[in-house]
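Hey,
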Amino acid sequence: MSAMRSPAEVVDVSVASAETKAAGSFVKLAILGFLAGAFMGFVGQGSTMASFNLLADPDTYGLGRLVAGTVFPVGLILVVIAGGELFTGNTLMVTAALKRRITWARLLRNWGIVYLFNFFGALTIALLMMASGLFDSGDALFGAVTVKVAAGKTSLSFGAALASGILCNWLVCLGVWMAYATDSLAAKCLAIFFPVWLFVTSGFEHSIANMYYLCSGFLAKARYGDEAAAIGVSEEALAGLDVAGIVGNLVPVTLGNIIGGCLFVGIAYAVAQNKLRRG
């Protein structure tokens, strides 16, 4: 057996995976969705902890993104290896729906349950981080940067958030897609690492990661708002970090993530490999 599957074989593996996901019970999808959301929360806080000193200074911001990017791939590795249902990766299920191997109703059911419980998982990590006191790290600079990151996201226009969401999930789904090409644990980790590193370094928008970033920033604003203002967060940006701002970011980013994963990975490769015939 070949150590690596061909692109055409990867389409078949993706479709088979989608069939399994579509058949999942509510309880299974809820638990695995919660875990995947928590994994995104873990890497959200971990990547910020690793880079907050750099992110706070415009002169080292790019380096901070690079450092954050080295930590963040752990989240998708946990989802793929340990097991989890992540909404952004599940956009690849569109290929199975187009081939009529799963129904559109089953696709939307999976997306809805997983998205909701991804949120609960990410929110749980945000709440636990607030309770941990770790945002006080670095003379509260960690907390200030947490607020700054969230305020930056809620300040994005609809179009900018949509475009950034497309770019993000194009790369994330490429990581999942390449992981389907091998059964080797090490190869899967490497396949995931580089696209995710690239999306985080680039600063693209990931809807499930944003659930953690936005919730943690919203929760931290009351305690670390002054510190955030000291590192350049405007009063307008702080005011925009509210529930409406969170929804205003998640809607376009989620739509962008759907477009990026569905169109530029799942559908693109299925069409290229002539795999959209039924059966």
